[in-house]
Design goal:
mainly alpha, rod-shaped
């Protein structure tokens, strides 16, 4: 995720990294070239005087701006919910690790076994968080070998939900520790509550990933923006004259930019520069 650190106003205006200009500049270039060709043909020839009034563009432009704003608000709600969920995952992970290290105890003769149990649980939980990240980004589970045996990672690849499988196995290990008397029955509820919170956060993150914006709505917005920008020279050349390409460039940058921002933040768990840093 790109974070601009104390950039001045002018620097923000001309800053390219983190903006959607890298994505939309080909569209803007094509629209501007079309507008330039039409303007030259309109002003330099007598037989190419195809012109519309600005009325239809005014009527379409206002609701189009509203629709784009609504879509971006919905996309940002998804982005912000993803940020809150991942923050909750981080906080619960810290609390769960503290519980494992401080709320477990064993007789002196079982101290070494308890230490090994603590290390196993903590490493498994780190594997769980990374497995969830990899699942949300549709990536391979190969890097989980840093935390789990290679054979177990191989078996996880066949699981429909690797993160949930790891969390389930963690619950079984905690239950085994409770049966050995390493976890008090009252404190066991705290451990179970942490696992419940982790499962809720995982389910909410998976809901965001598996439920994108309705495709028909997104396609409709893309089409209207494209048609509007390509036809704009037909409505403003008579009044804007040689400034038509410049006006089209500005308006296309606004509409294509808003459209691209909605696409970029719709899935907060992706790899775009403005997506959440899940590390």
């Amino acid at each position: 995720m790109f974070v601009a650190d104390r950039l001045g106003w002018l620097s923000r205006v001309f800053h390219l990294k983190g903006s959607v200009l890298a994505v939309i500049w080909p569209r803007i270039a094509v629209v501007t070239l079309v507008a330039t060709a039409f303007t030259v043909a309109y002003l330099k020839t007598e037989f190419f005087h195809i012109s519309l009034t600005t009325t239809p563009f005014t009527l379409v432009g206002v609701p189009l701006g509203i629709f784009l704003g609504f879509r971006n608000n919905v996309a940002y709600d998804r982005f912000w919910e993803g940020r809150k969920l991942w923050g909750q995952l981080v906080n619960t992970s810290r609390a769960f690790t503290r519980q494992v290290l401080t709320l477990t105890s064993a007789p002196v003769e079982s101290t070494l076994r308890l230490d090994e149990f603590r290390k196993t649980i903590v490493r498994r939980h780190a594997a769980y968080v990374h497995a969830l990240r990899l699942s949300l980004r549709s990536e391979s589970y190969n890097e989980l070998t840093r935390f789990l045996p290679e054979e177990e990672v191989h078996n996880l690849r066949r699981e429909p939900n690797a993160a949930n499988a790891i969390l389930h196995q963690t619950g079984e290990l905690l239950a085994s520790a409770w049966r050995h008397g390493w976890i008090d029955s009252v404190l066991m509820r705290s451990f179970d509550q942490s696992l419940v919170i982790l499962a809720d956060v995982q389910g909410a993150c998976e809901r965001i990933k598996s439920t994108p914006m309705p495709f028909s709505y997104t396609v409709l917005i893309h089409r209207i923006v494209a048609i509007y920008c390509f036809l704009l020279p037909f409505g403003i050349t008579e009044t804007a004259g040689w400034m038509t390409p410049f006006v089209v460039l500005i308006i296309a940058n606004a509409f294509f930019g808003l459209d691209a921002i909605g696409d970029e933040i719709e899935n907060p768990f992706g790899h775009d520069i403005n997506d959440l840093p899940l590390l």
